[in-house]
Amino acid sequence: MTRPIRNTSSDQQPDVQASPHPRLAAARCDGNEALDCAAGILSGQAHHPTGVSPATWPRRLWRLVRTALVAYLLLILLMMWLETTLIFPRHLIPPGDWQPLGFVYEDAWFTSRDGTRLHGWYFPCPGAAVHVLYCHGNGEDVAALGEYMDELRDRYGVSLLAFDFRGYGRSAGKPAEPGIIEDALAAQQWLARRAGVHVADVVLWGRSIGAAIAVQAAAAQGARGLILERTFTSLPDVAAWHYPWLPVRSLMRNRFDSLSHIGTYAGPLLQSHGTADEVVPFALGRRLFDAARAAPRQFVAMEGVTHNGPNAEEYYTELRAFLARLRHE
Fold it and tell me: Could you tell me which of 30, 88, 18 has the C-alpha nearest to residue 253?
């Protein structure tokens, strides 16, 4: 029986046997590829094991940049569309009691310059020498202020009108800066008629965005005194602090630029701000005060007080002294 003759010549390649260990085989392949890549680098030729050509990277990068730009522009458009909702979050105000029984008040109805019907609560104080128009912030309405106004009346012996600007409480319309300023002017005029004093003899008191409203009212019609709590230079300045990556100073429609109006008012000023205010930076309030030409004027820094935290007792002490001076002028 003849056996097959085995070719043993030196140019015959040995049979490749499958490795009993696939991971070792894969490692061997990866090692070979790494050697090829290293050889390519040493020879000056790039090796692309994934098959991606360098010419495709600029196109990929441009697609990423383009996508990011489109997303950024869409975000800007969304913020512009939501501006009114973000500044005037009326939907977040809990329903209030519009027929309270615990204190004495009068419903005040009047109209703004454009005919918008407005509502407020008037808290009379017989024999009062100081009459205050209170401009609330954007997160409350008159129904939420009744007990506080009643307390201020009893504590300081002043009469007060707290009113809702358009779109808030029982007032008609939709909130926007030009109309809101006209609402405050109409409220100041109503209080002057009701109290029997000149419109410029009304004390204007505002909190947060309400203080910005009070500043513009004082600049337009004058005031016997101006009380500002936790307010700002302008609304775009506040927005830029919260959203430094958005061009808010160029795009915002509601600006409430108190810095441009505070210099027009020259009467007494009492301003306060919490050093821990997380909504309106303390520095913005201080900057507004420094720009004022009011005399006399006083700034109360409330240590550790946040935007919605209770006022410091030091502030109430200065407030009492401020109102007492106005009473005796």
Answer: 88
53-97 per-position pLDDT tens digit: 667 888 888 889 889 899 989 989 989 899 999 999 998 999 999
Residues 260-289: pLDDT tens digits?
Answer: 999 999 999 999 999 999 999 999 999 999
Q: What is the pTM of this model?
A: 0.82
Query: Rounded CA gap, 283 and 241, in Å?
Result: 11
Half-sphere exposure of 223 (CA within 13 A, CB side): 35
Token pair 């094991």 in the structure block, residue? 49
Q: Looking at residue 52, what is its pLDDT? A: 54
Q: What angle do helix axes 313-327 and 146-156 make, rounded to 10 degrees?
A: 60
Structural contact between residues 185 and 220, judged by C-beta atoms closer than 8 angstroms: yes
Segments making up each domain of the chain, as ranges: 102-327
Residue 297 φ then ψ, to 5°: -145, 150
The structure tokens listed for 13 are 């390649």
- What is the architecture of the domain spanning 102-327? 3-Layer(aba) Sandwich (3.40)
